[in-house]
Amino acid sequence: SVDCSFSRGVCDWKQDVDDDFDWNPADRDRGDGYYMAVPAFVGHKNDMGRLKLLLTDLRPKSSYCLIFSYRLAGEKVGRLRVFLANRKTAPVWEENKGKDEKWRTGKIEIFQGAETTNSVTFESERGKGKTGEIGVDNVILVSGLCPED
């Protein structure tokens, strides 16, 4: 498994240069490291910020599970989408509002065909809200199918 949480820095994270704003580190409430966040007031409505995780050495014809923590806090904060490199057109995961300010867990199955997925992109779309944030943390890639809850 690969642990791509932002505090350890073992993974290759890249800010997209063609988007409207960057994701930035934010301190965790518990004080143990940080997560990546986009505050609600950054940019204009429908602006996008993309954070890309470059994946290397994934075996062809095998399954992986991408597990991550996310939070959409605040009224009309926007959308969080996840894209896989070999399927750029449609998101493989999307969430547009939080029921509360709590962190939740997202899981995405990655099936490798002959061509392997070489990146995962977390895309934040700015909503109408002025308070809150979209956050991502604890991104982990494990071999095999996603575990049931």
Task: Provide a quick synopsis of the model.
Helices cover 0% and strands 48% of the residues. The protein is mainly beta.
Instruction: Please describe the biggest sheet, giving its number of strands, its sense, and whether it closes into a barrel.
Output: 6 strands, antiparallel
Instruction: Give the class from helix and strand content and strand pairing.
Output: mainly beta
Distance between the termini: 18 Å
Shape: globular
Percent of residues in β-strands = over 45%
CATH topology heading = Jelly Rolls
Whole-number total of structural domains: 1
Helix content: under 10%
Task: Give start-end ranges of low-pLDDT stretches.
Answer: none
CATH-derived architecture: Sandwich
Element pattern in H and E: EEEEEEEEEEE
Secondary structure: number of strands: 11
The CATH class label is Mainly Beta
Describe this structure as you would to a colleague.
It holds the Pfam family MAM. Residues 2-148 form the MAM domain. This protein has no helices and eleven strands. With 149 residues, the chain is mainly beta. Strand 7 (78-84) and strand 8 form a beta hairpin. It is globular and about 45 Å long.
